[in-house]
Amino acid sequence: MAELEFQCPLPNGLHARPASTLAEVVGRFEAEISLENRRNGARANARSVLEMVALGVKRGDRCRLEIRGADAESAAASLRAFLDNELPICDEALPAEAPATGRALPRGLRNACGRWFAGTVVCPGIGKGRVVVLGAAFVPPELLEQPAEAPADEREKVRRANVALRATLEMRLASKPPAVEEGILRAHLAILGDVGMTQRTVAAIDSGRSAMQAVSEAAAFFAARMRESESAYVRERAIDIEDIGFQLLERMHGSRLRSPQLDLAEAAVVVAESLTPRQFLALDKRFLQGLVLEHTGGTSHAVILARSFGIPTLTGVAEVRAHIAPGTEAVVDANIGIVIPEPSATVRVFYERELVTLRRREERLARFRRAPARTRDGQTLEVAANVATVEELAPAFSAGADGIGLFRTEMLFMDREAPPSEEEQFAIYLQAARAAQGSPVIVRTFDIGGDKPVPYLQLAPERNPFLGLRGLRLYPGHASVFRAQLRAILRASAFGKIWMMVPMLNSVDELRWVKARLAEVRTELDAAGTKYDPALRVGVMIEVPSAAFAIPELATEADFFSIGTNDLLQYFMAVDREQASVAGLASARHPAFLRLLKKIVDDARAAGRWVGMCGEMTRSPRNLPLLVGLGLDEISTAAPEISGLKAGIAQLSAEECRALYASALACGTLAEVEARVAAFREQGATQSLLTADFVCMDSRSATKEEALQELVGALYVAGRTEQPRALEDAIWAREAVYSTGLGFGFAIPHCKSDTVSANSIAVLRLAQPLEWGSTDGLPVRCVILLAMRETGEEGAHMKVFSKLARRLMHEEFRERMLAARDRAEVLSCLEEELGLAPSPIG
Amino acid sequence: MKIVAVTACPTGIAHTYMAAEQLEKTARAAGHQIKVETQGAMGIENELSAQEIREAEVVLFAVDIEVERRERFAGKKIVEVRVVEAIKNPKALLERLHG
Questions:
Q1: Which of these, A1, A9, A3, A13, lies nearest to A35 by C-alpha position?
Q2: How confident is residue A527, by pLDDT bands cut at 50, 70 and 90?
Q3: How much is the pTM?
Q4: Nearest-by-Cβ selection for B41 from A743, A748, A794
Q5: How much is the pLDDT for A593?
Q6: Could you say which of A751, A776, A803 has the minimum Cβ distance to residue B11?
């Protein structure tokens, strides 16, 4: 026998990844090897990753390996080398655990909010309703009640299920999924092959349990041990174990075990471990007010859908199902990223106000939604939506989309055993054509490979899938799959304005190949007398740098171009966007990238071609002046962004934006571009200090918190701030120095903060005087908020602020402010006393 | 009485100017000569000259933050109060200076 002592060097303890590396080394030997955590005396079979993880070994824990058997000596030598050289470096940084209490609550809730849980915002908004918990793994009880057959038969059932599931997982792994999914698949495979799990299952069967009972009990046993761990990372693995157990049960049962149908009958907040796209689509959107998910793993498609439907959604809310009871009320605030179960009266009032503010803002933006976006000087820019499913079309158009700038079709090809048939695709593209009612729908042919694995295409693993066989490069090898899609697209083109776009193209010969296939399909359709649009427009997604330099040649074959900024940026900058350590190097505002974009647009224009843009660059309002200045025909983005972007475009001057773009092209560094963009925003910030929209009369606010929420809300509704919570915080930070209640019934809360887009004055006249901690002890009847930008030119506005401050020391002015009967009178009083230009009454 | 004063508050947006206005208004009503320098978000305004400081009988600082270029007042008798005092009760403050 040999013994090895060591101290755990891993910052995150012995979790699944290092434990499986250790188990691999152990697996090379015959010897019986056990691992003991000397801190708590717990022991595990060192071949079982699950048992080892369940030991709860933390950094610094003393551990002992006991090795017995014929090859104990050589095993000991290998393990010693492993412990010394490999174990310390076999871990990568785990995602940081966000401290749930670290998030700042809105000021109005800080003293009123009991329990709350923080998560990651994936779709902003606020929703409240009754909690409905969606069980991810629902096993019908009758399945577990079935009596066991002979142990040998039951063991065989487990073995077969195991083999089938392993084959599925390995196939998915072979298709080279993105790193995150690959990690999950490997973890799942390890659980499936774990000796601890197997031994436990077999022992249960031998004692007379059925295969289903044995599997579900073994999974429950290990999941429970994981849940006891002190590491949140290990605790979350419990879900993986249950998931594998569940999938084995499905294999044994022979069909999918569906969650019971969720019929929402009233405003609901759905809480789930995770959600499949199908589960999301089955939820009645009339009642779905918010979504809270414990996991992000595997839910990305559901998350994309939630975004399209504008459902306030949080993910990564760890173990929330344990804390929120079904049937109780909850508020999801996906603007700040929290969920509050069983809200108190104060919390309810707070959110009622918030919802009113959000609705008013929505109404203001709605004015811009219907019409095409037009700059102040009359240049139009189409704002279209990116979608991946038919279900997203209606919400996209009601969000104001001028068209569908990118219909990603690969989702139709994923999560299934065989490619979608021509008929299935035709039905979908037909729906898209009809829903668009004459607006263009740009259907992008499937972009699979890289980060989007599809098992049935049996793609060989690649060292670098982003530079491998993906997008159009796959089509020649899967000609029948591509042909079915071409036929479906062409047939649908007879019923609306369908444009077709090809991804990942390098040069014009590839496009010629596509058009030759298209011509063949047309001939077939002609022969069969099937209708299609003979003028179907065929375009190219510009996402590879070489294509960006081939626009004149491509234009001989292409009818239009759309710039895919995500891939174009990562290929152009040689930066993996998923790699956090370098992601910061790739900014779409980098001058070199701006020059590239300019070249694409200029070359497309010179060839008389339409050019749009889809991708993340379109999402940030910060980029909007550059996008307008670039001179695109269209930008296509996530549907909820559309009305905001349209409103933003209406405030810009195309001429000024072009000048900005020209000056950005002359910059040498990103920092210089950022400075120009910031300066441009400052220029744009010379809007009037005060409009009638910023005057609130007869306010019912009863506390300082409510009054400030109301004032900031007015600025948010008017589009003066996009970060109302941060603006409130800035005001409260000043308030903490000493009260801004200056006496005489007036308060002047103020701040210097770049959370306002322009210097602003807002006024609140209170129906009931309220306590403000004023110097003279009197309650306040009028609140005047001064919000000034921290950067930028302050001269003129600052003079107005200082004049206002001085005027407030005069009784005549105060009397006049309190006597004003309506918004117009308040406004004209301020304008006259401060010498402001009169502003139109909104 | 000849008074020079400096007002300065944390953000330099409001109280600096309210205090200045209050001091000017009240001092004049009481028949004093006063000049108030504001140190706010726009920097120093209505700057006190060396001669004005020299000739002043009293220097009043109504400030919540450090006075900029304080060395100008070296050797003078300085009364220093918080900004709110000048806003809340300027009359009492001026009477105190007198005494």
A1: A3
A2: very high
A3: 0.61
A4: A794
A5: 97
A6: A751
